Records
---
Amino acid sequence: MSGAQIITGHVLCFEGSPFEADAETVARIEEAVLISDGVVVQVGALGTLRKAAPEAEIHGFDGHLISPGFVDAHAHYPQTAIIASWGKRLLDWLETYTFPEEMRFHDPDYARKIAARYLDLTLSHGTTTVASFCTSHAASVDAFFAEAQQRGLRAVAGKTCMDRGAPAGLCDTAQSAYDDSKALIARWHGQDRLSYAITPRFSLTSTPDQLDALGVLWGEEPNCLMQTHLSEQKEEIRKASELFPLARDYLDTYERHGLLGARGLYGHAIHLTPRERARLAALGASVIHCPTSNTFIGSGLFDLAARVADGINLGLATDTGGGSSFSMLRAMAAAYEIAQLSGTALHPAQLWWLATAGSAQALHMGDKIGRIARGMEADLVAIDLASTPDIAQRHARAEDIWEAIFPTIMMGDDRAVKAVWVGGVRN
Ligand code: GUN
Ligand code: ZN
């Protein structure tokens, strides 16, 4: 075995979804994990793994949680430098802060600098896979993929297409959106651990012609994901119905243009009609919950328990920089608090699953990342469950593993992330 490593700690292994069975049934804690050649070889007792790989280097993280790296299923790396911008809601936030910042990405050097900064930040928070929107500049996609590739990351990204409702400097056309996206797919999709997502920003910034063109492209490139936004704020939904008078609802603005399918990722999706919920569930499309964003820009309270009951696939995300953090721990905490407001106490196992296996499944990568099991890619994090004095004193009272983990979910940040492995390489 080349480069074999054994990592010890509380190795968290999910065998199913804690939304479908008790945490005790679907999750177990093992003593150690053996990785080699970028993948997980075996999980189990330290003695057994040492026998299997006597030459392995041992990394001791006793008392720490060894988890899959976090999977952030929706983010905007170009918004790194404008995160935590004050006082606006979605549409004026886009105009005031986001579009002016995204204009700066016509400069490839700036794009490269922010992509590097973003990936360094997310890695320091234990995120090893992200699905990111770029800007409308093809160079912003090249910059992101190049920086992700340099770090050995599994990453999803796409050029954000917009041919109306945005400054001229950010607008493309139906044809150029198709051409640029097609060329980017040829350049990046399937290279190393990178994959392309066709990315219409949202229905307010695409003409029907552009949505048609991207729907055709998705038909030609069915292995690509498609990522967009859906029903985030009520004012946005009103505008969508004015711009698409024939559409039955917001989701139909995508559906009628070939942009609804199992490999579709729909960010936010807070204010859905019964038809929209039924269609998303029937097609196996994924809704991405962005809880820190939904509170920060005042979008609304996503009813996670109800969407689980609808049978909709869910992922979890930061939505940086509409979201107010780079941390998937913060996203878990916000998801917990929002669910509490609608009467559901999400179990820590459910929160952790959403941030790892759930998001991986939403990205159709559940067979590669998001769980620690034989053959899975070795994207791992070692989490200190007593990383600060306030967390440590609560952790000291914990009577089981989930009680030990929960204070870190609620109060943890990058100080809890003690080590990160990307494709088996320690960062
Ligand atoms: N809807 C369209 N664009 C955006 C964006 O950049 N962030 C968020 N949160 N919602 C959007
Ligand atoms: Zn977004």
---
Amino acid sequence: MNIENSCIVIFGASGDLTFRKLIPALYNLFRVGRLGQHFSVLGVARSELTDDSFRTKMRDALIKFEKAEGQELEDFCTHLYYQAVNTSEALDYAKLLPRLDELHDKYGSCGNTLYYLSTPPSLYGVIPECLAAHGLTTEEYGWKRIIVEKPFGYDIKTAKELDEKIHHYFEEHQIYRIDHYLGKETVQNLLVLRFSNGLFEPLWNRNFIDYVEITGAEAIGVEERGGYYDGSGAMRDMFQNHLLQVLAMVAMEPPAIINADSMRDEVAKVLHCLHPLTAEDVKNNVVLGQYVAGEVDDQMVVGYLAEKGVPADSNTETYMAIKCEIDNWRWAGVPFYVRTGKRLPTRVTEVVIHFKTTPHPVFSQNAPENKLIIRVQPDEGISMRFGLKKPGAGFEAKEVSMDFRYSDLSSASSLLTAYERLLLDALKGDATLFARTDAVHACWKFVQPILDYKAGRGRVYEYEAGTWGPTEADKLIAKHGKVWRKPSGVMKKKV
Ligand code: NDP
Ligand code: BG6
């Protein structure tokens, strides 16, 4: 599907996400010819920048983050424009009218406009209203779409309120709730692995799978985002969105066809089947943690409470582990252990399917368990672990692995990054990899009891930076007689 001529309006254009992710993604799409020449990018924020000063700022970011240079960089920058607008003041949006007219004329984009909301979330409901006040949401002249960054709401109530507000001005098919994990090639590959191979589907259920482990670990701390993070925590920042979406990809039923509706129907269905947590379940099946000073990558790092922008008495969790269950025929009784945290030993996101052992140990008490390890990042790939005979006398089994690594594919270097893929899809009008309202609500509904626990200042355990989280998380999985995998940053190393 080709993209039509269009204007991309980024609200929050003087912010971190714009220069670190959005502009680099657009630049890379331009570089490989996916955007063509008939597009414009209009940055909008309150800061008093001009087209020229905005271009300079973005040029510097591209040189820094993408090692961009030469004529290609200069050509790309000519597509960038800027308009200062007081984003919470409806009257001020009038300034956008002549700018948009001028850009649609210049690039022949006939009113086609993609709005990207990359501002503080408090403006996600305000901006659509202000745009509508100036007739900038109607589709009489070109299509209008809106990408909304995370967090989409703060809890189930605010997510519903936000939906209601946006739906006053945009139809559901125009709304693109972005979760950049869905743009990751390896997350999409979960679907292809499951649904294009006859081998896995018969095994992918409670009869053969003992438990599933999902890890989203980061070695970084909260960096410059302490202020934002403290109001969010690991639960809202990573679990409620990214990791529940990954869980849905692992657990969903096959869609009848691959299109936005049937895919998103299946995602919503499985998220609605998450076993609701009672207050007692939260105490037994959820572990929250906060890092204290420790060593990561051979460097001493400060504890969370000493990070910039974090109140000294904060109870915000930087780690979370949970046992979830899915109430349907495929998964009844199979625990999904999910954990995420900052300042863990390494950056790794992976899904591990732990298969049941043989009914009777013929060769050795310690025969290895069969595991399928799906490495989302880094060192993306898939590894199947199984037992084979140890050479020599007797019948002792040892674990061996069959590994596939994305980097071995000659085309791997041309893979789109998550933001590139999702921006391109939104420009094409393909919402398959964006979260639909019912799925977002199902996620919030599931986590609400954890939010209630947090609001009551529920227990948050300390863990040393550079370790795999609080020991209470080990006890959580030990109830199943298991231990968490301790993955290294490189898939080949077995741990
Ligand atoms: P920043 O704080 O760096 O940028 C916020 C932007 O919003 C600035 O351009 C700011 O510019 C503009 N803005 C407009 N109105 C207001 C206002 N009333 N108050 C404050 N700022 C305003 O945030 P990020 O770029 O980091 O994040 C943007 C959104 O994207 C957030 O919702 C965040 O949660 C989400 N996000 C960010 C990620 C990241 O890695 N940074 C990752 C995933 C999601 P000005 O002051 O000139 O108006
Ligand atoms: C963002 C979170 O959504 O995802 C960050 O706000 C987190 O806190 C980031 O670091 C992780 O994304 P990735 O793609 O690096 O795994």
